[in-house]
Amino acid sequence: MSGYSRPVDSFRPGRPPPFAESADPRASFVSVQSYHGDDDIEDEELENTRYDDRASDTMSVVTLDQQQHQHQQQQDFPPPPTRKVEFPVPQHSSSSSAYYNNDHSRDDTYMAPIPGRQGLRARTTISRRTKTVKLSPHGNFCISQRVPEEAKARGAKEKGEEFESMRYTAATCDPDDFIAKGYNLRCANYGRKIEIFVVVTMYNEDAEGFNRTMFALAENIKYLCEKKKAGWDEHAWEKVAIVVVADGRSKIHPNVLKVLEVMGVYQEGLTQSGVNGLDTTAHIFEYTPQTVLDAKMQLWGAREGMPPMQVIFCLKEKNLKKINSHRWFFRAFAASVDPRVTVLIDVGTKPSPNSLYSLWKAFYRNEQIGGCCGEICADLGEGLAHTKNILNPVVASQNFEYKISNIMDKSLESSFGYISVLPGAFSAYRWVALQDLGPGSGPLSKYFDGELREGVARDSSIFSANLYLAEDRILCFELIAKPNANWTLHYVPSAKAYTDVPDSVPEFLSQRRRWLNGSLFAGFYALANINRVWKSKHSFLRKCALNVQWLYNILNQLFSWFVLGNFAITFFFLFAELEQLLVDPNSPTASSSSRIVSVVLNIARFSYPVVLVCLFIISFGNRPQAFARTYKAVMFGFGVIGAVMIGLLIRRLISTINFLSTTPKSTYANMMNGLLAPSQQPTNDGAQILVNAILNQMGTVMTKQLDLQLSEERRESLIYCVTLASTVGVYFIASFLHFDFAHMFTCFIQYLVLLPSYINVLTVYALSNLHDVSWGTKGDTRPTSLPTVQSTAKSSDGIPIAEVQISSSKTELSSHYLEALTDLRQISPNSERPAATAADQEDSYKSFRTAMMLLYLGTNSVLFAVGTTQASGSGYITILLAATALLSVIKLLGVFYFLLARAVARVRWSFTAKKLSRAAGARQEMSQADDAPFLDVRIDDYKGSGKRA
């Protein structure tokens, strides 16, 4: 791939750093940003610095030498046009030696080893020295600092401010005021048009999960750089920026900071606690690293085919929850950059190499799409780990649930144009679609209503609190219901992302508590506001389709509400059938055996409500970690019940098929003909004639009654078979249509066994903790105190001058960098912080929880009482089965339509691709000359050409 001026060999112990042996013309670059020369820097340097006009209102200390260097950046930065170097696929073979400038001295491994500590007994302390710097006219503190040479050793690009120095900003404002207060971002100052703007939100996750996500994003950028169509080329990394938002300086895992330090994005000695009396709200670091670490803590750089990445690291001073992290991303950073597509990713999620491109392509082909998501897959690992996860029922059942949800639910909802939830772990939105209509009115304003902010009024009711446990569902509805707009939401199955799923019962319960309660109230919100769809600019046909989906969602909501009662009714009838099966009245020991079997079955039958009551008791306000063994035992018991119910269903299915395949009417007719045969003989006996007439009439009546009974039994048997076929068969058909069916053979049984626990344990725990609206916040630790920035005077041009304490030693930075590398190599896998206590809840929340539980139990108890009566029991079971069949058929029809629409879209797009390609060639020269990206020109010229992506 072109775009690399010269590959730089990796830094190894015993080998001098790059550029150490030759005189570097940049050696005179000495300022607060650079420690390429002496360690001690005199304050008199301030006289040789001036304000960087290109950085707008943000302060940057720049020497005169650096000004000349930056002026030449555009001439130095592009690669020689005669050289073309492709990103190689990492391999152990030496066949790619041409990429390394014929350097045959490299070892067999393609990743450089981490340097050892070699005598370092204690971690180097970063010392701070007092310096005098200029602030911006707004009084903002922003400074650039040279990164250690070791951080650039594996990169291919040598020159350019973004590769040589890291930029730090101490933001003292609210995210909404970021632009108004004069702050900006480096990528915006370069005038780059960002096509894909990614945010990675994190809390206290470990370095392994962080590396998994960052390495996957690097592979996605590499994929974009290798594309030679749709406007992407070797400079694609300039059109992608990644924002990492850490929720709290005291929360972030220290190993993650070491990873960022190794990448060159973070330096410990720059952070400031405040500026001119204003507390720092966020520490913002900007750098374009050319190295990345994978989950095994191995370094990857240009030699391994990794392109540069524009990274913005936002370290929030306080822990203000994930929604505040998203507010920093949307209100502060996205508003500064003005991207085309914004992508939300949770740390630990691993998108496949083509996922970002697949999501972007959906927006590119259809300008009506306002948001889309890919397929969230459970990361089952490889080899032995994969087998272990498949054998773990908790993990396997979640894998099946994820697959079916994507294959059936997402396909159906995408056909309507409204997906109820675009998962926050991996989803994308068009930036224009998210824009508010006015102050406090619009998708983003409604999305951020759930954040508790000082000085901002907010609905603090328990309904609103639970509603914003699923704030991503609110954002989805606000997009399709946006006034004077016709945005739709779509599912992109080719964009896959892998995430770790809970493998323990307590963690599983905590996660599903948030999901179930949030989706319940978000569903109520969407149903209650369906009238807003008619105020949008959707076509009349689309509005009608959305209202049909509304009816479908009502039916789903009813099923979700009465799931416990329906399970109890099914449990009651299946155990009644089991009793009839096991108690044989013709057995010689019928009296004793029947009594024993009846006692056992009655104990099992009445143990269900007892276990249910115990579940309610232990779920009220108790953490699942405290009753982990109890929950496991209960889930095991429900698993046994699930296995028995599966056996009964299979046995009844076989009996039904045998019944439908036989001809009991013919058998009965033959028997009656045999009994009535003597009556058909001619006779002159009057008494015999009367008897024969009576027998013939009785046979006719009994035959008609038999016909009615057989007809009723055949109808019920047919409904039973159709229901099972529509539930199980539809799963197989839909999976085969998507060419993704392995889960049907590896995880289906585990899901069926755990289905009673999904219905009972998860539902009871979620509703019993309705008052808990937290995200499982963990204990706080006291952060390290930081120095502050204080203005002391003003320069002759009126710019504030302040004294700051920052790190200023090249030796300390390099030592700290190498120690971070060594520490990362010694990290044990899956190291996490221990969980801590939960926060207290208000009495009003608990009162609402109690009232909701009484309503839920009351309605389900009434349903159970009505459904198990002798008169209505059979009829209700028939209605329940028919409704289940209807929902399954609707989902299958949605899958058919979704796949058909995608096939038609591909055909339509193939006809426009050539036209777009010709336009690309004609406009390429103009695009390279203009600041506006080539992509904008093409999309505007052919707007709507591929409308059904």
TrEMBL record:
Residues 66-75 have a biased composition (Low complexity). Its main location: membrane. Residues 47-56 have a biased composition (Basic and acidic residues). CDD domains: Chitin_synth_C (cd04190). The gene is CHS1_1. InterPro entries: Chitin_synth (IPR004835), Chitin_synth_N (IPR013616), Nucleotide-diphossugar_trans (IPR029044). One of its GO terms (molecular function) is chitin synthase activity. It catalyses: [(1->4)-N-acetyl-beta-D-glucosaminyl](n) + UDP-N-acetyl-alpha-D-glucosamine = [(1->4)-N-acetyl-beta-D-glucosaminyl](n+1) + UDP + H(+). Polymerizes chitin, a structural polymer of the cell wall and septum, by transferring the sugar moiety of UDP-GlcNAc to the non-reducing end of the growing chitin polymer. Residues 1-103 are annotated as: Disordered. This is Chitin synthase. GO terms for cellular component: cell septum; plasma membrane. Its EC number is 2.4.1.16. Residues 91-102 have a biased composition (Polar residues). It comes from Geranomyces variabilis. It is an enzyme of class 2 (transferase). Keywords: Cell membrane, Cell wall biogenesis/degradation, Glycosyltransferase, Membrane, Transferase, Transmembrane, Transmembrane helix. Belongs to the chitin synthase family. GO terms for biological process: cell wall organization; chitin biosynthetic process. It is a multi-pass membrane protein. Residues 130-195 form the Chitin synthase N-terminal domain. The chain crosses the membrane at residues 554-576, 596-621, 633-654, 718-737, 749-768, 853-871, 877-900. It is found in: Cell membrane.
